[in-house]
């Protein structure tokens, strides 16, 4: 049973998560609940049970909104994908089962996206990486598998804990120490005396240096450290790609900025065509072509 609420004096007055109506005062009976996880915005929670079900509940109404069912299997562990890449609506659940299988469910599309079988023993723990692109799963024999939901492939198995069940997997953001963002510089195509620079430093910014005056003449603040940089001649636009899957366009004539989300990985390359009508951006093995609107 799963109950939410605040205890009253001498009694429990919490609300009950129940998928069907019950007589007044009667509490529902469920198969054993093995895990409870919460959506990034805390609007929903999800539970998994011994009967192979994964249930998604609304925390506002305490009502069941989605149920995924796998027959003849126990669902032993569960993880909710983190908010990433500017796509909060693409929420997924990773569920581990007693037969060693791992299933990815799309909450927004109410469908199973993928089934993998990275283990031969029952899964006991599962977690998404902080960017949501990798799933780590552990089993009762102590093996940890590192898998990519986008390809369905397991690319690494860790056996350091072999012989003891994996009880918990936790992840954190990658430390940037020793892995600094790149240093990038480009001459300004509409003013040869200016040099634009981005790189590691105290502040996240574009530094514009005047070669004739031998001094910094302008600084443009950025939300993240830049991974890529490109400038166009005719439109006076500056394109900046970030590791956070975001692209920013800066109009150097007016000082306005606009952000775009379209990639699922770090935007490590961006290039304007010579005519500046198109902008090409790359993230791993994906290339997007953007049409640059003329004002």
TrEMBL record:
Residue span(s) of domain WDR90 4th beta-propeller: 32-176
What keywords would UniProt list here?
A: Repeat, WD repeat
Q: Which InterPro entries match?
A: Beta-prop_WDR90_4th, WD40/YVTN_repeat-like_dom_sf, WD40_repeat_dom_sf, WD40_rpt, WD_LIS1/nudF_dynein_reg
Instruction: Enumerate the Gene3D superfamilies for this protein.
Output: YVTN repeat-like/Quinoprotein amine dehydrogenase
The organism's superkingdom is given as Eukaryota
Repeat positions for WD: 33-67, 116-146
- Please give the name of this protein: WD repeat domain 90
Q: Which organism is it from?
A: Cebus imitator (Panamanian white-faced capuchin)
- The gene name on file is WDR90
